[in-house]
Specification:
This protein is an alpha+beta fold. Helix content is 21%, strand content 41%. Strands 1, 2, 3, 4, 5, 6, 7, 8 and 9 form a 9-stranded mixed sheet that branches. It is globular. The mean pLDDT is 93.
Length: 176
């Protein structure tokens, strides 16, 4: 792990851990609840738990359901700009009342893939809590990855087979 990232993580304790797989890439993932912004040079994407009253937004992808819409940063975008753009493209919802919950720390478990353009062996995803503001169906980009986005009561979302890190962020968002 890089010295700067190690120094930032030194005094923090992860609240949840899990293994994840994206195609051929395998990761150990740790979730941190903190109001401290991590070093931006490691942040590759921005995510949010999106709520609407006592409901949370659930995204259906071909391989799973998840509760963290968002995506990769574009050059020159702030984290908030990235989150607002990605949420609108993936779900059609504009966001309000953004509050930092923490971040996900991904550690690659395999050699660096050829042509890999992101921080290696560690990178981060910042996670916010957000409130759904206005639905813009014409802004949603329909593709083969985000198949559906719908609000479910928190009790139903908690009954889904969420990963430990997602569950941690859902619980943190529900109490704020």
């Amino acid at each position: 792990m890089d010295t700067a990232l190690n120094a930032f993580l030194r005094d923090l304790a992860s609240a949840a851990t899990e293994a994840d797989q994206w195609g051929e890439m395998a990761f150990q993932v740790a979730g941190y609840l903190t109001a401290n912004m991590p070093p931006l040079e490691y942040v590759t994407s921005v995510r949010a738990v999106v709520t609407q009253g006592e409901h949370a937004l659930v995204i259906t992808s071909p391989d799973r359901e998840h509760i963290l819409p968002g995506g990769r940063r574009e050059p020159g975008e702030s984290l908030i700009e990235t989150l607002r753009r990605e949420a609108l493209e993936e779900t059609g919802w504009s966001l309000a009342s953004l509050r930092l919950l923490g971040f996900k720390h991904f550690h690659h478990l395999a050699p660096k893939p050829d042509g890999y353009a992101y921080p290696y062996p560690d990178f981060l995803q910042v996670v916010y809590k957000a409130v759904a503001e206005t639905y813009h169906p014409d802004q949603r980009i329909v593709d083969d990855y985000e198949l559906d986005a719908r609000f479910l009561p928190l009790a139903e979302v908690r009954a889904l087979p969420l990963s430990p890190v997602q569950r941690m962020f859902l619980d943190a968002a529900a109490v704020q």
